[in-house]
Amino acid sequence: MSTLVGRAEHADPGFKDIPIIDLVNISSSDPNVQKVLAADIRDACINVGFFYVKNHGIPEETIQTTLEMAKRFFAQPIESKMEAIPSLQVEIRKTPNFKGYSPLLSGNNDPDNAGDLQEGFEFGWEPLDATQRNDHEKDGVMAGANIWPSDLPGFREGALHYYHAAVRLGKLLFPLFALALDLPATYFEDKTRNSAALMKLLHYPPQTTPADDRVIGIGAHTDWECFTILWQEPGIQALQVLNSKKQWINAPPIQGTLVINLGDQFARWTNDIFKSTVHRAINRNGVRRHSIPLFFGTDYDVKLEPIPSCISPERPLRYESITAGEYVKSRLQATYGYSQEVHK
Ligand SMILES: O=C(O)CCC(=O)C(=O)O
Ligand SMILES: [Fe+2]
Fold first, then answer.
1. DSSP letters along 30-50, please?
2. Mean of the per-residue pLDDT values for the chain?
3. Closest ligand 1 atom number to CA of residue 202
4. Phi, psi at residue 166, to the nearest 5°?
5. Which of 262, 266, 277, 260 is nearest to 324 (CA)?
6. Quick check: CB of 239 below 6 Å from ligand 1?
7. Is residue 116 within 8 Å of residue 109, measured between CB atoms?
8. Amino acid 303: pLDDT
9. Cα of 236 to ligand 1 centre, how many Å?
10. What is the pTM of this model?
11. In which residue ranges of the chain is pLDDT below 50?
12. Is ligand 1 within 6 A of the CB of residue 223?
């Protein structure tokens, strides 16, 4: 059997397609079924860093309710959206860990760009009801309660329903990623007890201005956690993925699927054997576009330490170890801190 390092050396630098993986059997107790799924996931992670999943288990109704709520939220006048951060009355960068509303151009994912042409609403784990645990005392630098709009009935519940469904999917995926890395299926179990997942409702207005490569929906970037579960609005092509030959490959929405893309935490766990692939979104379609990423990482107090089988004399260690929380925090600060002077 090839080693992980060996497989990575033969990765496809010029992928043109993003694979679609069927999760219909994800809960099967048959180890062979799990093995086949894990092998497909391993190929996608080593070659592309992106894949679509179908039969993902998030009910269409949950998606539609969340989309409806997102549209209502973003349709409000800017003053109301700013008030959606009631205790602070300020923009996202001054709230605990950037939760809440982020206006157009308040973030900048590509340091060569001049702001992302999107607005967003971000939140993290919160119990849906009293039966769920809330063990977040170890969140460290990422600690901070969610902030909700006060005047949108059903918004919090709708968004949290989606959040919990996506976290359930993420928790089914972690064992497959572990198997894909030739590790026991339970490898990430004690590292993902607290659902260190941030969910973001995103709105990209249609970009009608003359082409300016420095202002696009979201500039070229990698995600920061282990993986992202992304829902894209149907019928609107905007997302593009960069292969190692520096070609942008379209990742259009495909009916009934979600996009899964790897982030920097998995690149660190795997010494870049799993790819945290650069991507961007540009909305030149003449209509509004919405998307919903949920970024799922290991618990914030967990150290990102490379898996031994991902290091070899030919592939020496590429990253210093850092906790997941410190890593995400540093990326948040870089993304939202870029224009701090202007907004003071
Ligand atoms: O809107 C999209 O399709 C992509 C969003 C994204 O890449 C992100 O929020 O990190
Ligand atoms: Fe992203």
1. -HHHHHHHHHHHHHHHHHTSE
2. 92
3. 1
4. -70, -35
5. 266
6. yes
7. yes
8. 98
9. 13
10. 0.95
11. 86-90, 340-344
12. yes
